[in-house]
Amino acid sequence: MFNRKKYKDGLEKTKVSFWAKLKSVFTGTVDDEFFEELEMVLVQADMSISAVTDIVENLRVYALNKGIKDTELLKGKLKEEIVSVLEENGVLEFKYPAVIMVVGVNGVGKTTTIGKLINYFAKDGKEVVVAAADTFRAAAADQLALWAKRSSVRIIKSEAGSDPSSVVFDAISSAKAKHTDVLIIDTAGRLHNKTHLMEELKKMNRVLDREYPEANLYRLIVIDAVTGQNALSQVEAFDDAVELDGVVLTKLDGTAKGGIAVTLSKEYSLPIAFVGLGEGIDDLQEFDAKEFVDAIFD
Ligand SMILES: Nc1nc2c(ncn2[C@@H]2O[C@H](COP(=O)(O)OP(=O)(O)OP(=O)(O)O)[C@@H](O)[C@H]2O)c(=O)[nH]1
Ligand SMILES: [Mg+2]
Predict the structure, then answer these.
(1) CATH at residue 113
(2) Is the pTM of the predicted complex or chain greater than 0.90?
(3) Residue pLDDT, tens place only, 153-208
(4) In a domain, 108, yes or no
(5) What sign does the CA torsion over 74, 288, 298, 265 have?
(6) Structural domain span for residue 149
């Protein structure tokens, strides 16, 4: 169930900027200049050079084979090519019992995403529990508790400064005792170059493997779409530490550079599981490549 309006509204900024430029490229005939200009527009939308090179090369071959001279006739093919990159890594399907560990650098929207996820699963009739394993900031557990309360789900927390792994341990016990479908773990934001903090994540990962092997573990990295190409080093560092299973791309509503979704899909074999299209509880949407591309084209 994809909410088309959420996609359209959330990606409005990307569309306005992307489409304005694209429109001026899709005039006239298919020639080298057209392909060069197209490349520039795609790169400016934050699509990586390697993604853009492939997309444009496929378009070039297609135009040649079909003898297409009018650029207008390549628009549909461009959409298809972008969709195909975005679909390359498949979709993330949850199996239950599920544990979702949410990681990422500071302020990208982890806790907010979890708040929305709680609602997403609870509305689907799933039994949910959240673990406040961000014990770094005193206010972090309170922030999460507010979201838990909104959807009437249980929260497992501990006092600030305690070991996040012990919160994870307690949450597992609770999830098992109550036959919970989904356990969601909030972690503290951390710079990806801080070794001891990454070790802490590994420890949580080990506790999950050891204490809850029957659960299906999904480690999701939250990436702020505004971040741009720096997203790549974040994915690499967190993947090294915990072996990621998917990406949540947040704050798409705040950027004109939604093309980062294409970069992430191209450079890594991680599916984009959800997109954050606003601050509201319903603004987290399952990722759908076609909806995404439709929303950024006119
Ligand atoms: N516009 C918009 N804002 C978002 C979205 N997701 C999160 N935010 C905002 O981003 C800000 C930071 O969100 P948090 O959820 O606290 O981020 P965090 O990653 O948990 O932060 P730390 O725990 O400090 O690392 C908040 O003001 C959120 O409302 C989104 O999809 N769109
Ligand atoms: Mg947080």
Answers:
(1) 3.40.50.300
(2) yes
(3) 999 999 888 999 999 999 999 999 999 999 999 999 988 777 888 999 999 999 99
(4) yes
(5) negative
(6) 98-244
